[in-house]
Amino acid sequence: MNMQVITTPGGERMILIPEQDYHALIEAVEEASDLASARRFEARLAAGDEELVPSAVVDRLLAGENPVRVWRLHRGLTLAETARLADLSQAYVSQIETGKRRGTLDALKPIADALGVQIDDLV
After folding, report:
1. pLDDT digits (tens, 9 = 90+) for 7-31
2. Are 77 and 112 found together in one domain?
3. Same domain flag for 60 and 112
4. What is the CA radius of gyration of the chain?
5. Confidence band (pLDDT; 50, 70, 90) for 123?
6. What is the mean pLDDT of the chain?
């Protein structure tokens, strides 16, 4: 690497490098940061704190399908099982899934717990 050291009148030392070297350094730092992020994700995945979601589930969510229904089906739960796990009536959970009722946060929290997702995944 070709560089030049300059000392300012205040005594601060500064390094000048060619622009292409600067860009290479920036790219190396970004790659190291990306690698560190990937390793943190892999550790959370191995610990069970993260999961890989199939693209079909993501596609259905992005298409606007009801997230309670999408996650319930992805988890392989029936409506009755989900309602029981959330300690809610099956009719109420069904109304949330069909959009007839919005579902309060007090209702969505136990549903999220039953489905193993964050409440943000349902709203």
Report:
1. 999 999 999 999 999 999 999 999 9
2. yes
3. yes
4. 25
5. confident
6. 93
> Do 66 and 83 belong to one domain?
yes
Q: Are 38 and 87 part of one and the same domain?
A: no
What DSSP state is assigned to residue 117?
S
Claim to verify: residue 107 and residue 60 sit in the same structural domain? yes
Tokens of 15: 């390094």
pTM for the model stands at 0.68
For residue 17, give its domain range: 4-46
Distance of CA 40 to CAs 2, 31, 35, 50, 102, Å? 35, 14, 9, 10, 36
Three-class SS state of 61: helix
Instruction: State whether 34 and 87 are in the same domain.
Output: no
Q: Provide the domain count of the chain.
A: 2
What would the DSSP string read from start to end of the chain?
A: ---EEEE-TTS-EEEE--HHHHHHHHHHHHHHHHHHHHHHHHHHHHTTS--PPPHHHHHHHHTT--HHHHHHHHHT--HHHHHHHHTS-HHHHHHHHHTSS---HHHHHHHHHHHTS-GGGT-
Give residue 105's identity as a one-letter amino acid code.
L
